[in-house]
């Protein structure tokens, strides 16, 4: 925008007065108030052995997350009592806690030939896709190596797309299938030293979910 200066004539003189200087209003610098730093509570993930007091939580969570998958794969309702019997049988089962609150669990069985079958790992939906599952698998691998395990095994139903993607992302490879809808995956974590590797069947007494 152009600004035009106004020239004033002084009486009795032919000299032009100098234009008055236009004083710009002083602009006070605004001090930006510092926003308080947003601090998030630290998140601590821990694992502890299952107790009898955890059974209702474990069964309810498993039924909620895998009930529909089991129904579609096997044409039968989720075997709640069979699963409860399994976790009470002494199979190693660990509760995953976030800041002291249970949010999931995993369970496994080991076999004489150096395999560990991860029979279940379930995490509450609100805590999925946050790296908790991957961290749990990393811990399982670490514990398995200490136990002399060379191969991890997991069975996933072919209609469980989320679990299939998760399993493959962890480096598990499909090794065989059996009816009606089960895909078996293996992940080799150490050199095999035991004969009889690869029975192709779930450990005895273990329900399929």
Notable traits:
single chain, about 210 residues, alpha+beta, Aminopeptidase, seven-stranded mixed sheet, 4 helices, globular, disordered N terminus, disordered C terminus, Ribosomal protein S18 acetylase RimI, Bact_Acetyltransf
Question: Could you explain how this protein is built, in words?
Answer:
A seven-stranded mixed beta sheet has the order 1-2-3-4-5-7-6, sandwiched between helices. With 209 residues, it is of the alpha+beta class. The protein contains four helices and seven strands; from the N terminus they run βααβββαβαββ. The protein is globular, with a radius of gyration of 34 Å. The protein has a domain at 45-149: Aminopeptidase, CATH 3.40.630.30.
Condensed summary:
With 209 residues, this protein is an alpha+beta fold. The protein has helices at 55-74, 80-87, 132-146, 161-169, and strands spanning 45-49, 93-98, 101-110, 115-123, 151-157, 173-178, 182-188. The chain has a 7-stranded mixed sheet, with helices on both faces.
């Amino acid at each position: 925008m152009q600004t035009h200066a106004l020239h004033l004539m002084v009486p009795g003189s032919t000299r032009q007065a100098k234009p008055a200087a236009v004083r710009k209003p002083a602009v006070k610098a605004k001090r930006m108030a510092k926003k308080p730093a947003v601090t998030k509570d630290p998140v601590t993930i821990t694992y502890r052995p299952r107790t009898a007091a955890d059974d209702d939580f474990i069964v309810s969570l498993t039924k909620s997350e895998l009930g529909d998958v089991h129904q579609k794969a096997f044409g039968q309702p989720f075997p709640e009592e069979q699963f409860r019997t399994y976790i009470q049988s002494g199979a190693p089962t660990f509760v995953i806690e976030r800041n002291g609150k249970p949010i999931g669990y995993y369970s496994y069985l080991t076999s004489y030939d150096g395999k560990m079958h991860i029979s279940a790992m379930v995490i509450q939906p609100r805590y999925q896709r946050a790296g908790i599952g991957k961290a749990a698998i990393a811990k399982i691998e670490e514990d398995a190596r200490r136990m002399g395990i060379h191969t991890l095994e997991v069975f996933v139903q072919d209609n469980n797309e989320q679990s299939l993607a998760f399993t493959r992302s962890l480096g598990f490879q499909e090794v065989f299938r059996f009816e009606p809808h089960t895909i078996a995956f293996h992940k080799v974590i150490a050199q095999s030293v035991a004969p009889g590797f690869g029975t192709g069947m779930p450990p005895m007494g273990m329900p399929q979910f």
